[in-house]
Amino acid sequence: MCLILFSYMNHPDYRLIIAANRDEFYNRPTQPLDFWTDLPDILGGRDGQSLGTWLGINRNGKFAAITNFRAPSMVKAQAPSRGLLVSDYLQGDTGPLDYLETIRKKGLNYNGFNLLAGDSHGLYYYSNMGQHVTSIKSGTYGLSNAFLGTPWPKVEKGKREFAKIVSSGRDIPTEPLFDLLKDSRCPRDEDLPETGVGIEWERLLAPMFINSETYGTRSSALVLVDSFNRVTFMERTYLKKRSGDIDHETRTFQIHTFKE
Phi and psi of 197, rounded to 5°? Predict the structure, then answer.
């Protein structure tokens, strides 16, 4: 993922609400949201190249999501796929805190990442660009390609609008959340972060929804987990046509996870 907006233990009916965008090169093979044939307890999209994922949940209620940490000067060419950090957690028996503590000990083997991992008991955050595993408290959060809560324009705008939508009533309106994730407006140059990729790439990567010739937002996802562990997982995948227009397809799964 490249943008994750989420509310945790901050709604009367839903303990976790997620709205997220995955940005990737258009030519990278991807499988859409579904239960995996080889690991049928995992529900998520899948990277067709490394067989990991950016966002997923399993039937026991374990959840994980990852974003890249933008640090171009520190990229390791032979580093393992970061998406496997998500799928390894979802298929294992280790709880989120113990899992992230294990990853912390070998985190520098990977290129920069932010990893969220949780279950029915708690939600935790770790970045291998930092030092500590953090327990997520009740509230609304935004995560992009820097540390959790770094006030990039799309994170601040996303958090503000996301909070308005999810607090508008007991039910969560999904189309307004998808509309928010489709916002392609770019902030002013003076508000852009400086991450070492140059001003043209800073502009391209700055909107919530990215659209360019070779790289952009491939999918948007919503995950709603209520207080009874009933999960609604929606993924809207985007297909860029030769004309430049963008078409989409939406897949929805509803499952009842088991408490661990």
Answer: -105, -5
pLDDT in tens, 178-227: 999 999 999 999 999 999 999 999 999 999 999 998 999 999 999 999 99
Residues in the chain predicted with pLDDT less than 70, given as ranges, are: 242-244, 259-260
- Where exactly are the structural domains of the chain? 3-256
| DSSP characters over 134-162 | EEPPSEEEEESSSSTT---HHHHHHHHHH
What is the third-level CATH fold of 3-256? Penicillin V Acylase; Chain A (3.60.60)
- Taking the C-alpha atoms of residue 138 and residue 163, their distance in angstroms, rounded to an integer, is 13
108 vs 228: CA distance, rounded Å: 37
* Distances from the Cα of 78 to the Cα of 67, 75, 110, angstroms: 18, 9, 9
Give whole-number Cα distances, 134 to 40, 99, 125, 127, 147, in Å: 30, 13, 5, 9, 12
